[in-house]
Amino acid sequence: DLVSVQQHASYGNCVKVSVGGGIVVVYAHMTCWASDLSNGMTVEAGHILGYVGTTGNSFEIGRASCRERV
Prior knowledge:
Blueprint: E1 2-8, E2 12-20, E3 23-30, E4 32-33, E5 50-51, E6 68-69
Antiparallel strand pairs: 1-2, 2-3, 3-6, 4-5
């Protein structure tokens, strides 16, 4: 399921996808997300979520490891 499509202060344009087991994967800093996405919709493997970019605070240096529990 698609958890949310949003513009975040730090992550920029991002999509959060629930992958089961209470784990949400965050795809951040995208130029834009796919035009057919909406909050709460179901996505399957192979569905285009968005396009690579540098929105938000993408200039930060460090190990990117984002896990959120829902």
